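User: Show me a protein chain along with its predicted structure.
Assistant: Here is one chain, sequence first, then structure tokens.
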Amino acid sequence: MQIAMIDDRMVPYDKLEPVYLDRAFYFGDGVYEVLRSYNGRIFALDDHLRRFSNSIIAIGINTVDMNDVRDRVLESFEKAEISNARIYFHITRGSAPRAHSWTDYIKPNFFLTVTELPDDSKAKAEGIAVSTFPDWRWKRCDIKSLNLLANVLARQDAAMKGCEEAILIDENGFITEGAASSFFAVRNGTMQTAPLTCNILPSITRDYVLRSAGVIDIPAIEKSVTIDQAAKADELFIAVTTKDIVPVVKFDEAVISDGRPGLNTKALIEQFKKFIHAAEKPAVSR
């Protein structure tokens, strides 16, 4: 008799609910997306869905209708009636008996949540502390995979140090990005961030930061930063969908500049707000 045990409950294997056979459960075999709303409107939906579609295609899930995904997102958001919401959703390859390879008959599973975003005004006003951690992630970080154990370990290490984010360092001593964010430095008046390669997530917020810099004439280069360069930078900040731009005032043990958010970071935050307000007008977009 084939059996399974769920906590202290034993059940016949053939009676297992599909969720216990989901390939995400065993392998992290799926991709996810996170977007947010401002004042009742989703920001950059098309951009997020495009990235989500790219991730789905990259892992070979070929039966997903993106128009259906869009409809589900909009329907759930409307039903939740949360003005400033975090919308999380993922698609997994599906449920099947555990085996590394898969067959084409598996039907993908969809999951979504809409939750309220916490107030992050204090972090934006005062800045946050971050700590460094080795970048142990797989080599295709451009795919927004459900495999996040390396990120989890990095974030837990940061939390234990009293920090809000972990900044990941590759084997050559360069910063790739945050465990759940993009990372930026301002050095000698120029904004700097790692170039988009397969080890960097193509962050939607990162793209809007670069656009913001262009609008307000802050020079920007896509070039990796070392730990030492970051510690001695004039300004640091992270960018992430659920928080936008957040100043970094402490990097490991180094206090950045005078320990307060810098002028360039503040200017970028203000310009980012203008993109948000423009998107709030007639239609859904982020």
